Amino acid sequence: LWPLRTRWWLLYIGKSVDLKERIVDYHIEGKYYAKVTMSSLRLSLGCLLSGELGLRLNDSPQSFGKKEKKLNKWLEKHARIAWIKTEKSNEV
Question: Residues of 61-89 as b/e, b for ≥16 C-beta within 10 angstroms?
Answer without folding.
Answer: eebbeebbebbeebbeeeeeeeeeeeeee
